[in-house]
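User: Hey, my collaborator sent me this sequence without any context and asked if I could get a structure. I don't really work with proteins. Can you help?
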Amino acid sequence: MPEIVVGPVEELPPGEVRIVRDGQLVIGVYNCDGTFYAIEDRCSHDDGPLCEGDFEPAECVAICPRHGSRFDVRTGRALTLPAYVPVDTFEVRVEDGVVRVVVP
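Assistant: No problem. I've predicted the 3D structure and written it out in structure-token form, which is a compact way to encode the shape of the chain:
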């Protein structure tokens, strides 16, 4: 499967987010207490950007900057309205100190 290189582990410390692109696909990569998660950068409520919003690392929650919907970055599940449909998640691998996202 193809992968997007996010960067070295030390450049994405706990509590940080990095947005990466692969053509039309935009993904937010989150470091929740040393574990990496990736979700699509698209709020399921109105298709606006999601990963540019706030991130609550203690809860692993991304908050949509437009309407405040909260998403669990571990599962993609919408936690609050107005969003109720989950967003896509992607497998994250760390190999040789480099964070990578597996894309379809």
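In plain terms: The beta strands are 3-8, 17-22, 25-32, 35-40, 55-56, 61-63, 70-72, 89-90, 92-95, 98-102. You can pass these tokens on to your collaborator as they are.
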